[in-house]
Every structure is written in structure tokens, then in C-alpha cells.
Amino acid sequence: MINTPQIELDLEAITLRFADCGAWEERYRQLLLLAKQLKPMDVSLKIEEKQVEGCESEVWLHLHDNKLYVDSNARIIKGLLVIVLACLNKPTKEAKALFNHTLQELGLAHHLSESRNNGISAIWREISSLD
User: Fold this and answer.
1) Any catalytic annotation for residue 21?
2) What was the pLDDT predicted at 90?
């Protein structure tokens, strides 16, 4: 399993944030608020070698001493990265399935564009390659 030092929220806390959301706009706002919970990645790690290919937005992943650091220039992706990190308390395959289930549970899955879904898939491929 990978440690995730950039977030203090667990999946239960994230789920509670979305519990009272009705309309998509409220869920979208919660996703943007989640993005603010992601502690910044050191700027020295935001290099081309750490960038995820296949994302329209810039996304960086860095694994050091079994700690995963992530960042993006897009706030929605940052919010999704917080959910990714919260799922990583399990082995990667289980974490990806948990992430997909969580997106359904939070009412986010049907609202993500194809390009964002492709980007999330690229992020999971990259995380899987780090194991």
C-alpha cells in the first residue's frame, strides 16, 4: 500500500461532505472544495518526467519512500485526486475499484466528461506502474 501524506481526509469524511448535496452544482462545488484540501506538491517535483501522459490537464505523480505526491493545474482534477488518494489505503487494484464505486456513490460518475475520465484512467495506469 502507498502512503498519502498530502491529505488528512479519509473516504468516510469525503462521503459525508457529499451526503447533503442535491444538484450537480452542489457536488461540483464540493469537488472544488476538496481540491483545496490537497496539500501542495513541492514545485521541484513538477517536472516533465513526473507528468502523467494522457491527461488534458497537467498532472504530476511522484512516489518517494512509499509516499505518493500528486498535483494538477486543474481544480476539478485536484478534487478527484483527493478521492484517489483517499482510496489508496488498499492495494491498487482494489483502490481503483473503490474509487469507481465512490464516484458512483457521490453522484459524480455521470457528470465527468470523456476527457476527464480518460485522464483519470491515465492517472490510475501511472499509479499502477508505481507499485
Assistant:
1) no
2) 83
